[in-house]
């Protein structure tokens, strides 16, 4: 829960970084604000759920009552579902093939699985170009004046 409160302290860092790089990206700044609000809410709920889970576990050990078992099982189930939701994007990316990435780069959306070609045709405001600045924007900022890169010193590498 501490992390949830720390997240909101300096919300403008993304906007300031973009401004320092000379990029105007209002949509991305608004998106970051929405992500901060969502992340803060999820972390608060998750913190409360972990506290309830811990208290239910303590009550289960000492009281050994049915309501303690139910609360412990309920919190465990919610935490398990949350963990599964966090893992699903990773599982989805795991099965992505190199051809899919190539099709996306060539704007051949019909070759992308799950019907994205049809989705982009039916929703012209949700085009891949709209997401391109969010996906490739960080690489434009890195090693710019806003985020200078230090030269790599390969003499520190231990190659044996």
Question: Would you give an account of this structure?
Answer:
With 160 residues, the protein is mainly α. The protein folds into 2 domains: 1-95, no CATH class; 96-146, no CATH class. It has helices at 2-7, 13-20, 26-62, 66-94, 98-105, 116-122, 128-141. The longest helix has 37 residues, at 26-62. It starts with a helix and ends in a 19-residue tail after the last helix. The mean pLDDT is 75.
Essential attributes:
160 residues, 2 domains
- Shape call: extended
Order of helices and strands: HHHHHHH
Low-confidence stretches: none
The average pLDDT score comes to: 75
Separation of the first and last Cα atoms: 44 Å
In terms of DSSP E residues, the strand content is under 5%
Largest sheet: none
Q: Which class of secondary structure composition applies to the elements?
A: mainly alpha
Q: Kindly state the number of beta strands.
A: 0
Count of domain modules: 2
Task: Specify the number of helices.
Answer: 7
Give the C-alpha Rg. 23 Å
Helix content: 55-70%
């Amino acid at each position: 829960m501490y992390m949830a409160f720390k997240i909101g302290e300096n919300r403008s860092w993304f906007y300031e970084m973009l401004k320092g790089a000379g990029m105007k990206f209002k949509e991305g700044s608004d998106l970051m604000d929405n992500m901060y609000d969502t992340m803060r809410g999820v972390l608060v709920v998750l913190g409360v759920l972990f506290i309830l889970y811990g208290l239910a576990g303590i009550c289960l050990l000492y009281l050994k009552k049915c309501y303690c078992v139910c609360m412990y099982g309920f919190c465990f189930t919610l935490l398990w579902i949350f963990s599964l939701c966090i893992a699903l994007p990773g599982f989805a990316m795991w099965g992505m093939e190199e051809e899919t990435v190539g099709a996306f780069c060539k704007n051949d959306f019909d070759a992308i699985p799950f019907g994205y070609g049809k989705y982009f045709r039916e929703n012209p405001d949700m085009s891949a170009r709209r997401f391109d600045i969010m996906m490739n924007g960080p690489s434009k900022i890195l090693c710019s004046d806003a985020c200078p890169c230090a030269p790599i010193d390969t003499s520190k590498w231990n190659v044996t």
